[in-house]
Amino acid sequence: MGEILLYVVLSMTSLFMMGFVVHMMVNGLVSAETEIFLIVAVCLTVAVVIGYMAWDVVQVRRKK
Fold this sequence. Notes:
The chain is built from 2 helices and no strands. By secondary structure, it is mostly helical.
């Protein structure tokens, strides 16, 4: 149970950091709407990658 909580906290932190990184990189260079679109796109991509990694961990642990 402790591992799951750790994974959730790290996943949420990673998503927050990716959104902040995009904001810091493009703030003022593009319009606010484009910035929001980029933040959403990057966060969704990272969420899919994190989901795939979690799925892979579950699959590996079931085989043991």
